[in-house]
Write a structure and sequence with these properties.
CATH class of the largest domain: Mainly Alpha
Mean pLDDT: 94
Distance between the termini: 68 Å
Strand order of the largest sheet: 3-2-1-4-5-6-7-8
Order of helices and strands: EHEHEHEHEHEHEHEHHHHHHHHHHHHEE
CATH superfamily of the largest domain: N-(1-d-carboxylethyl)-l-norvaline Dehydrogenase, domain 2
Number of strands: 10
Number of domains: 3
Shape: globular
Radius of gyration: 26 Å
Length: about 475
């Protein structure tokens, strides 16, 4: 019987493109899909004449893969992954490896790893970014899970990954447990932030500077030649002047309701769990939710019409670009901050410079300044916050005046800038030595006896005051309600 180097389950868009990528690097791939006709269509179409082994049952599929078996799942996250694992396991042997290449919740990945390791099977949760094009030509790959699996899968994954100019693969081991899928989740959260920030810049350029589609194309194309150069800026330039078959600008024909698949919300939930202020990405998710309230927005737009022309604050293309760049720095700062706190919590020992390097090619958020993030963490491995690095600090300071002016213009003119403004608030909150949180603690102690710390006493020494003279000495720490 002919055997393969690796098996792949799931032949939707990402699955079939990844299969073609793997085969193009000299590997034979066994294929399985729960709908057999999908396998047939693929091997008689895009996969015709190539080194694929089509199979139509789980036992047949597993039997065609050489040991230790390596199986990539490219299927919908959640219950379908557990169901497929349950179907595969009876036919697997100790030392075989299952790789989940979907956008799974990292908690599920942690659970699956421990469950399968108890049976002698290695499990890897692998973030794969780059969309259809990346899957075919070289994605950014973020594997994590059973450490013993890495030597067996390293060659294949690094072969198919995107490569930097010096040939370095955009695929390195991330860490144990759910580390790989956590890093991919944060990547997607930053992606949400990047896309919303670009949308806000687009709104300002269109609504405040009154640029037409060709002018918008020129602005984004020019930005993509400088420090804002990135995949998302590049495709935005392409989108701006794309015309449909009626010779209309397609962008203007698209309904302004943005969808989402959940990884942005997961990022917010993880940030809440880690007590980390992921404000920009949170606002990006909320902005998509607000876009979905189409009927309410239509009603509100009629009820709250602008009653006067607002004064021109003097913003221009350059200041909008500077504000976009500064807010973008905050987006990445918050994402890496969340990864740092989770790494400490789960003992993943994440290498942030390597993560930034992996994201430089192949993935959706690839951009030129990711190299600066790698440099920052290489030079300062214990860096608490990216804004403390000299490059980022100087960039923020040089953009700050324009950033404030652009956010102020949005407020005064009624153009919603949830991410640009929340990024600025995060920055101002971070640099505030004396915050008003002392009042919040006083309020909490007043109504709920929740205690407070004092500036003239050591940290973690707590006090309570009977503010009304009628509260007594009972506090939230010595009773259960």
């Amino acid at each position: 019987m002919k055997t393969s180097d690796i098996g792949l389950v799931g032949l939707a868009v990402m699955g079939e493109n990844l299969a073609l990528n793997i085969e193009s690097h000299g590997y034979t791939v066994s294929l399985y899909n729960r709908h057999g006709e999908v396998v047939t269509r693929f091997v008689e179409g895009r996969g015709k004449g190539k080194n694929f082994i089509p199979t139509y049952s789980i036992p047949e599929f597993v039997a065609t893969i050489s040991r230790p078996r390596k199986i990539i799942l490219m299927i919908k996250a959640g219950a379908p992954v557990d169901e497929m694992i349950d179907k595969l396991v009876p036919y697997l042997s100790p030392g075989d490896i299952i790789i989940d290449g979907g956008n799974s919740d990292f908690h599920d990945t942690e659970r699956r790893m421990y469950e399968l390791e108890s049976r002698g099977i290695w499990f890897v949760g692998t973030g794969i970014s780059g969309g259809e094009e990346g899957a075919l030509h070289g994605p950014s790959i973020m594997p994590g899970g059973s450490v013993k699996a890495w030597p067996e899968i390293k060659g294949i994954l690094q072969d198919i990954a995107a490569k930097l100019e010096d040939g370095t693969p955009c695929c390195q081991w991330i860490g144990k447990g759910g580390a790989g899928h956590f890093v991919k989740m944060v990547h997607n959260g930053i992606e949400y932030g990047d896309m919303q920030l670009i949308a806000e810049a687009y709104a300002l350029l269109k609504e405040r500077l009154h640029l037409d589609n060709e002018q918008l194309h020129a602005v984004f194309d020019e930005w993509n030649k400088g420090e804002l150069k990135s995949y998302l800026i590049e495709i935005t330039a392409d989108i701006m002047n794309f015309k449909d078959n009626r010779n209309n600008y397609l962008l203007d024909e698209i309904l302004d309701v943005a969808g989402q698949k959940g990884t942005g919300k997961w990022s917010i939930m993880a940030a809440l769990d880690e007590n980390d202020p992921l404000t920009l990405i949170t606002e990006a998710v909320y902005a998509r939710m607000l876009s979905g309230l189409l009927e309410e927005r239509e009603k509100a737009s009629c009820m709250f019409l602008n009653e006067k022309e607002f004064a021109d604050t003097g913003i221009d293309i350059e200041s909008i670009g500077n504000a976009l760049y500064a807010a973008k720095l905050v987006s990445y700062t918050q994402g890496f901050s969340l990864m740092r706190r989770a790494s400490e919590h789960y003992q993943w020992h994440l290498d942030y410079g390597t993560i930034a390097q992996i994201w430089r090619k192949g993935c959706i958020i690839r951009s030129v300044f990711l190299g600066k993030i790698t440099e920052a963490y290489t030079n300062e491995p214990g860096l608490e916050n990216l804004l403390f690095n000299s490059f980022f600090r100087n960039k923020i300071l040089s953009s700050l005046s324009a950033w404030r002016n652009v956010v102020a213009d949005g407020v005064l003119s009624g153009v919603a800038l949830p991410c640009m403004s929340s990024a600025l608030s995060y920055f101002d909150g971070l640099r505030t030595l004396k915050s008003p949180a002392n009042l919040i603690q006083a309020q909490r102690d007043y109504f709920g006896a929740h205690l407070y710390e004092r500036i003239d006493k050591p940290r973690n020494e707590f006090f309570h005051t009977d503010w009304t003279g009628e509260g007594g000495n009972t506090t939230s720490r010595n009773y259960n309600a």
